[in-house]
């Protein structure tokens, strides 16, 4: 298996599942990791070194809210010393100006700031945290003043997708060089909240027009990336660029995953960084090898002309909708389960149900 | 617009030697651009002081290539990065 296999490019380090927000579309698993199970500083430092030695170039420090870790500054410094490009994925809440100074001094390369909505009332409702938006805006202004490179990640769903123009203007005002307008995909918490979050087909069509127009208006000023919702696509995305081909995810307790939702697939054995080095996990770990290549594929993927382009789409989405992780991604028009996706779309209610907010189990 | 601007790498864009793959890469927000020999040669001349013309002349001399062709290559390559906000012109 290792003969034709390239090293990974990116590592997503979920430093913690703690977060002041409780967004209903959180990409963390339904079962959140408790604080006392989190990896200590020195293990993360070792993992960053192993990752750089393995060929990882980009490190994404994520969560939960990574600023919930008191040692964030130390981790940024260690990652830079290992030669990694360090990106902080944050809500901006919980990062006081003194901490921003320390992060800058530690060598932070870039910040990806999440945007729940463009007004305080709506953003605080979506994040489930009163006053959160004001704190985010203060953080963003501080980052802008310091000249820290910024990408805004504006999360789109039924309640926000009609506000794309405002989100883009918000990012432009902050001097962002890039905005990612990303529609929620349905795993984990978002799957549990699907009826509250799925936009209508008309909303998605309008969003595409808005994006095309904004790209013309902001050409040369801001890059606008758009991630449309899978459910309205004809063909699946090349999830993770192919399973176990470019990226590694590490959960707060050190479990190493091929993608953030991989633990939803039953039967996979995941290694932990405390038991095995990252190179061994990447090249020889059973979970990473489970869906590499196309030997595992079933029809229609197995004989499909697109199989090396989209790699059968997303394994976790196949699991979520068809209960078989080897099946074609059900959003594909050739998938026998496409009707299940169409059924979900057809069942949209006029009045969406309330959010089930993300929470730790008691 | 300045006909002969000075290109510079903004904060957040880093030229980096990838020791594992033994190649030069441009590290940018949330992406990695693999560079070929030409891209590497151009970006190594981007020092925040030299104009496009100065960079093109140096490269034309070093590689013994027609200056006009080199100038077109340099402009085309950097214009592409500027459009993505990964390089600035001053």
- What spatial order of strands do you see in the largest sheet of chain A? 7-6-5-4-3-2-1-8-9
Number of strands of chain B: 5
Low-confidence blocks of residues of chain B: none
If you compute it from the alpha carbons, what radius of gyration of chain A comes out, rounded to the nearest whole angstrom? Answer: 20 Å
Mean pLDDT level of chain B = 96
> What percentage of the residues of chain B does DSSP assign to strands (E)?
15-25%
- Encode the helix/strand succession of chain A as letters: EHEHEHEHHEHEHHHEEEHHHHH
What is the end-to-end distance of chain B? 10 Å
The tally of strands of chain A reads: 9
Computed structural class of chain B: alpha+beta
- Residue share in helix of chain B: 40-55%
In short:
By secondary structure, chain A is an alpha/beta fold.
Features:
heterodimer; A: 362 residues; alpha/beta; nine-stranded mixed beta sheet; B: 90 residues; alpha+beta; three-stranded antiparallel beta sheet; two-stranded antiparallel sheet; globular
Write the layout of secondary structure elements.
The complex is a heterodimer of chains A (362) and B (90).
Chain A: E1 10-14, H1 41-54, E2 58-62, H2 72-81, E3 85-90, H3 97-106, E4 110-115, H4 120-127, H5 132-146, E5 150-156, H6 164-173, E6 178-183, H7 188-192, H8 194-197, H9 201-217, E7 223-227, E8 247-250, E9 256-257, H10 278-284, H11 286-289, H12 307-310, H13 315-322, H14 338-346
Parallel strand pairs in A: 1-2, 1-8, 2-3, 3-4, 4-5, 5-6, 6-7
Antiparallel strand pairs in A: 8-9
Chain B: E1 7-8, E2 14-18, E3 23-28, E4 31-34, H1 37-45, H2 52-63, H3 67-83, E5 88-89
Antiparallel strand pairs in B: 1-5, 2-3, 3-4
């Amino acid at each position: 298996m290792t003969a034709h296999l390239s090293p990974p490019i990116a590592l997503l380090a979920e430093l913690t599942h703690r977060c002041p927000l409780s967004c209903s579309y959180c990409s963390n698993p339904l079962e959140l990791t408790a604080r006392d199970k989190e990896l200590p500083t020195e293990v993360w430092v070792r993992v960053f070194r192993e990752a750089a030695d393995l060929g990882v170039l980009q490190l994404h420090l994520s969560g939960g809210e990574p600023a919930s870790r008191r040692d964030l500054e130390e981790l940024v410094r260690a990652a830079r010393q290992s030669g990694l490009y360090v990106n902080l994925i944050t809500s901006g809440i919980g990062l006081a100006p003194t901490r921003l100074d320390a992060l800058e001094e530690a060598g932070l390369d870039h910040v990806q700031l999440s945007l729940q909505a463009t007004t305080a009332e709506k953003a605080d409702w979506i994040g489930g945290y009163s006053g959160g938006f004001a704190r985010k805006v203060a953080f963003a202004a501080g980052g802008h003043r310091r000249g820290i490179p910024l990408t805004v990640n504006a999360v789109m769903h039924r309640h926000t997708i009609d506000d794309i123009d405002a989100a883009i203007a918000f990012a432009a005002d902050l001097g962002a060089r890039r905005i990612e307008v990303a529609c929620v995909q349905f795993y984990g918490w978002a799957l549990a909240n699907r009826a509250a979050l799925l936009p209508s087909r008309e909303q998605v069509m309008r969003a595409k027009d808005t994006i095309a127009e904004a790209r013309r208006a902001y050409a040369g000023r801001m890059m606008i990336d758009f991630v449309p919702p899978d459910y309205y696509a004809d063909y699946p995305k090349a999830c993770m660029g192919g399973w176990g081909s470019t990226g590694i995810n590490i959960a707060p307790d050190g479990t190493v995953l091929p993608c953030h939702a991989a633990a939803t697939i039953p039967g996979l054995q995941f290694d932990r960084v405390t038991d095995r080095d990252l190179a061994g996990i990447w090249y020889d770990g059973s979970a990473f090898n489970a869906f590499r290549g196309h030997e595992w594929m079933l029809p229609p993927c197995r004989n499909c002309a697109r199989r090396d382009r989209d790699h059968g789409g997303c394994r976790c989405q196949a699991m979520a909708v068809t209960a078989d992780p080897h099946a074609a991604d059900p959003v594909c028009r050739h998938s026998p389960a496409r009707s299940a996706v169409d059924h979900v779309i057809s069942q949209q209610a006029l009045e969406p149900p309330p959010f089930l907010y993300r929470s730790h189990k008691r | 617009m300045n006909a002969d601007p000075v290109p510079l790498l903004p904060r957040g864009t880093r030229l980096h030697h990838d020791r594992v793959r033994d190649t030069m890469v441009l590290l940018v927000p949330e992406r990695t651009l693999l560079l070929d020999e030409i891209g590497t040669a151009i970006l190594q001349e981007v020092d925040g002081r030299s104009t496009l013309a100065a960079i093109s002349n140096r490269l034309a001399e070093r590689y013994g290539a027609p200056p006009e062709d080199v100038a077109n290559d340099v402009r085309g390559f950097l214009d592409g990065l500027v459009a993505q906000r990964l390089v600035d012109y001053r």
